[in-house]
Design brief:
With about 140 residues, the protein is mostly beta strands. The chain has one helix at about 1-15, and strands spanning about 20-35, 40, 45-50, 60-65, 80-85, 90-100, 105-110, 115-120, 130-135. The N and C termini lie far apart (about 65 Å).
Length: about 140
Amino acid sequence: MKKTLFLAFTPLLFSSCTNDFYDGDTRTIIEGNIVYNNTPLQNAEVNFYPVYNQPKNGSIAELSSNEIVYDRYQDEPISISKTKTDSSGKISVSIPRNEDTSVYVIKITHGKNTKYYGYISHYNTNNYYVNLGTLNY
């Protein structure tokens, strides 16, 4: 009986496997400062999303949410990494490399306000490191 149940449930183990869209070995380090009215923005939530936009240069600027092209197969964008700013407004995080795209957008939420910044891409990544500089929220 146990053998029959084992054989019956074994296919279920393999049917729940899905593709992983991230290369677990390759990560990019992102550091920067976030300020609001020249004051460090404390405890702001910072999310990173893979996107399918094609940036033309390495500048990171504020974006409108309707400019961002997420994965068309997802109902809602999925954050690949999340952090909070420290007491001096700094962030330091590592994000996994997405296998489909090498472009990412930053979503910063403080209270009920949200702003988007982009793009992190090959234009501003050097040896898997990106310094955002100072972002004005």
